[in-house]
TrEMBL record:
<dbReference type="GO" id="GO:0004492">
    <property type="term" value="F:methyl/ethyl malonyl-CoA decarboxylase activity"/>
</dbReference>
<dbReference type="GO" id="GO:0006635">
    <property type="term" value="P:fatty acid beta-oxidation"/>
</dbReference>
<dbReference type="GO" id="GO:0005829">
    <property type="term" value="C:cytosol"/>
</dbReference>
<keyword id="KW-0963">Cytoplasm</keyword>
<comment type="function">
    <text>Decarboxylates ethylmalonyl-CoA, a potentially toxic metabolite, to form butyryl-CoA, suggesting it might be involved in metabolite proofreading. Acts preferentially on (S)-ethylmalonyl-CoA but also has some activity on the (R)-isomer. Also has methylmalonyl-CoA decarboxylase activity at lower level.</text>
</comment>
<keyword id="KW-0456">Lyase</keyword>
<dbReference type="InterPro" id="IPR001753">
    <property type="entry name" value="Enoyl-CoA_hydra/iso"/>
</dbReference>
<protein>
    <recommendedName>
        <fullName>Ethylmalonyl-CoA decarboxylase</fullName>
        <ecNumber>4.1.1.94</ecNumber>
    </recommendedName>
</protein>
<comment type="similarity">
    <text>Belongs to the enoyl-CoA hydratase/isomerase family.</text>
</comment>
<dbReference type="Pfam" id="PF00378">
    <property type="entry name" value="ECH_1"/>
</dbReference>
<dbReference type="InterPro" id="IPR029045">
    <property type="entry name" value="ClpP/crotonase-like_dom_sf"/>
</dbReference>
<dbReference type="InterPro" id="IPR018376">
    <property type="entry name" value="Enoyl-CoA_hyd/isom_CS"/>
</dbReference>
Length: 307
């Protein structure tokens, strides 16, 4: 069995893969680096100057992680330190091999109001804005490529950067009284954490243009109607809606981690790669599970039923 898995890993390395495909295969790689004028350590030093709040990660035995944006006095707005902590948590999740799913939520019944205005005011030059943009696009792209099925649990408000963060998740659930709103236009800017690009993929270019240019308030009914969210939960209670979200997610992560993770990687490839590269990647991923324990066990079960 180990020999087969080693052969599959070797095939991943030796296949004729495009650069983008290789990026998907490897964890820890970012969109931007020094060749783009992006110097991560310099950005980190700037962001460290803006404390407040935390990004907390709880990993359950069920294979579900719970990522909590915790800065309730500012509607869970991202301070500089929280932006750094988000990257740290993504790096931690990249090495969580037992993980299958992830729920992102905000503390105290609201999701996130985006960036902390204190940091925004201090980082006031176009260069500062583009640097922060590259940092967050790096982080959320790595987040999006995690081999975990992710769900944004939207309670209260998801505004600005908070709304953008929801688009980096595979699915979105809303409580009945919650709202999502891309308020960037009213701040004199555009989405910069990758939110506009991902929103087009989720709801299409025409709807995305309406949502962004109108700074539309998407309540749960409207968001469900345009395909922004997958389901409206029954409860608005913080504990109960988290339990609902966990039950909702469990239907998609039932099974061995290696199979669920390979499925997520395969879908990510289909979304990001050209057709031929995605097919090759699907083939390579198959080699990591074909003949594996889950496959053999499923075949053995089927044989019992066939007798």
């Amino acid at each position: 069995m180990e020999l087969k898995q080693e052969m599959a890993r070797s095939l991943l390395k030796t296949s004729s893969l495009s650069v983008r495909t290789k990026l998907l295969h490897q964890t820890g790689l970012s969109l931007y680096n020094t060749s783009h004028g992006f110097h991560e350590e310099e950005v980190k030093k700037k962001l460290e100057q803006f404390p407040g709040g935390s990004v907390d990660l709880q990993k359950e035995d069920s294979g579900i992680g719970i990522l909590t944006l915790n800065n309730p006095s500012k509607m869970n707005a991202f301070s500089g330190v929280m932006i750094l902590q988000l990257l740290e948590k993504v790096i931690e999740l990249e090495s969580w091999t037992e993980g299958k799913g992830l729920i992102v939520r905000g503390a105290k019944n609201t999701f996130s109001s985006g960036s902390d205005l204190n940091a925004v005011k201090a980082l006031g030059t176009p260069e500062d804005g583009m640097t922060l943009c590259m940092f967050m696009q790096n982080t959320l792209t790595r987040f999006m490529r995690l081999p975990l099925i992710s769900v944004a649990l939207v309670q209260g408000r998801a505004l600005g950067g908070g709304a953008e963060f929801t688009t980096a998740c595979d699915f979105r659930l809303m409580t009945p009284e919650s709202e999502i709103r891309f308020v960037h236009k009213e701040m004199g800017i555009i989405p910069s954490w990758g939110g506009a690009t991902r929103l087009v993929e989720i709801i299409g270019s025409r709807q995305a243009l309406k949502v962004l240019s109108g700074a539309l308030k998407l309540d749960s009914k409207k968001a469900l109607n345009i395909g922004m969210v997958d389901e409206v939960l029954q409860s608005s209670d913080e504990t109960e809606c988290l339990e609902e979200a966990q039950e909702w997610l469990k239907q998609f992560i039932k099974g061995p981690p290696e199979v669920i993770r390979a499925l997520k990687k395969s879908v990510s490839s289909g979304k990001e790669l050209c057709f031929e590269d995605a097919l090759q990647n699907e083939r390579d991923l198959l080699g990591t599970v074909w003949g594996g324990p889950a496959n053999k066990e499923a075949i053995a079960r089927r044989r019992k039923f066939d007798k």
